[in-house]
Each structure stands twice: as structure tokens, then as C-alpha cells.
Amino acid sequence: MNQEDRSNISNQDEEIRDRSLKMLKAKVEMGDLPLELKERLLIRVERLNLLVGTNAYLTDFESTASYVDLVCSIPWNKRSPDNLDLNIAHQILDKNHYGIDIVKDRILEHLSILSLRRRNGRSPEKSEVVKTKTFVPVKAESFRASVLCFVGLPGIGKTSMAHSIAEAMDRRFVRIAMGGMGSASQLRGRARGFPASEPGMVVKNIIRAGYKNPVLLLDEIDRVADSARAEIMGVLLELLDPEQNMAFTDYYLDFPLDLSEVMFICSCNNTGGIANAVLDRLELIQMPSYTDEEKIVIGVRYLFPKELKHSGLTEDELQIEDDVWSQIIRPLGFDAGVRTLDRTIQGVCGKVARKIVMGEGKTFRITQDNVAEFLPQW
Q1: Distance separating alpha carbons of residues 107 and 190, to the nearest angstrom
Q2: pTM for this structure?
Q3: N or C end: fewer C-beta atoms under 10 angstroms in the chain?
Q4: Which CATH architecture has domain 292-374?
């Protein structure tokens, strides 16, 4: 390669670097970011010019570009409008859940409070924001609401109830699985100076939601790893406290993020593994177990039609007589939730689907005489 070719390649590399820096700077300038953060990023991009031609340039450029991409993807000021129509909320709750009227009534009361605050002009959109010298936003009147925490045994609808609340309010729904979480950095993120640094699950889910006011479910907060329980409870305390979550700091982001408009919902099997300070921020709602009569209705109205659709069967191809359901709901004894019932119905549909594909029949009717043939064998 002669000197002219080397010179041409060098000029091309320089043009690529200049174009990349200009694109990075334009992305920051056009981003809907807090003013202080935008200034920081512009200064950081300008510093990259000083590293051009050094060995550290590529590494620092990659790090800066990744950070800019993350920051610009956060919905700093983008919120979805709330639907606080109680009639619609009541219809959605009844559509997705049978019974548990006490729980539904408390949720409707919770939404009523939010509606009244919105009517009285106390919505987050109208809150006055005061910026201090340390760039920590302090709301003159934060949009406070109690944090609902559903308590109950597995399979009784805690997660699906949180999803129904999001559907009723017309908000995006995101979920963080806390079961087995072994480090607080999974929630808060890891600082950019450390290897394998990345934002925490809170920031990731806010980005995934696309709005700053989603419904965020912290699922199974009582089942975090014992070795990290104290640290994780400290992060939860900051997330769930309205005096603190308006300036939540993710270690990777390294800038206060306003989470005061996020509707946090928690779930747990029991409260034994939850710190008292966190419990003080929660409104505990006990999810009752389902009776056999309720399970029969749930199986007939909700689970069976759903499994027919999922398995590709029609109502003509598979029918279950009413007097058979008492055996279907208790193949292994009492179960507080409906997951065992759901698996049993899946098993029945699977056996019927196999018989149809094998050419052993076109329509099947489950009766007292043949139910044992179709129930799954454990």
C-alpha cells in the first residue's frame, strides 16, 4: 500500500469520525431531555473530539454512544392519558375476574381517589416543578397515592389483577419479577465504571413501557434472596416512598429520574420477608382463596373457552357436562388458586386434540362415565 492509499484511508476514517460525532451531538440536541442532563451530554460529546487519534477514542465513543442511546430512549416527559371511568373499570374487572368483590371494591375506591384528585386539579401534569442546584426535582405537590399490595397464595390472581388495573386505566403494564433476586443492582443498575455495567430493571421497564406513568408490578417482593434482602428493601423503600421516588437515581443513569407518576403495585405470598419500613408504605389487600363453587364458574366461563381457543378445538368438538366439573376441579385435592384447574383443563383438551388428529373421533363429550379417561395422570 503506497503513501497515497494510506492518506485516502486516513481521510475516510476522519470523515467517519466527524460524521459520527455530529450525529451523536444532533441526537442529544434533538432529544426531549432535562436541560441539565442535555448540557452534561453535550460537554461529554465535545470531550470526544480531544480523544480523536488516541487509543482511548473508540472505547470512550462506544461508551458515550450507548449512554446517549439509553438516555434518549427514556420517556422523560411522555405520559399516557388516564382513563378513570369507574363503569369501564368495573366491567374490565368483572370480565377478567370472577368473585372477590371485596378486592374489586377496594380497587374502585382507589381509582375514585385518583379521579377526584384529577378533578380538583392535583394531577401530575399540573404539578409545579422546582429545580434545585443539585438538579433534584422537587414537586410542590406530588401526585401521591397509596401503593396496593396483593397478598395471597400462588395462583389466586394477584398478577392478573394488577394487569386488569392497567387495562382499566388504559396504562402500559410492566412487571419486575422479584423472586430470587440476588442483588440490589438488578433494580438500581450498575455504575458505568464497573465491568458489565447496565441500567437497572426499573429504568429498563420504564423504557419498555414508553411512558413515564405505567403500572409497574413488583411481583413477589417477599421472595428475594436472603443475602441481598436488606439492600433490596432499601431500594424498594426509595421506589415506593412518594417523598423519594420523584428523584430516583439509577447508578448507570447517574441522574435523578422522576417516578412519582408510576403506579406501583406489589404482590407477595406473605408479609414475613418484607421490611417493616416497606410495609408502612403499602396498603395490604388480602386475596381470598376460591371456593369449589367459584372454581366451577371460573372453569366454565373463563378457563375452558380460553383453552379451547388455544388448542384449536371448537365447542362442537369438545363438550363437558355440568356434573363432571366437580371432579375436574379437584383431581389432587384442595388448591387455593386455579392454576391446577387450568392445567387439568389443558390436559383434557390435549387428550381430545390427540384423538381427533389420530382419527379416533370427531366430537367428544366428557361425562361421568368417561371422565377418568381424559383427566391427566400425575
Answers
A1: 35
A2: 0.81
A3: N
A4: Orthogonal Bundle (1.10)
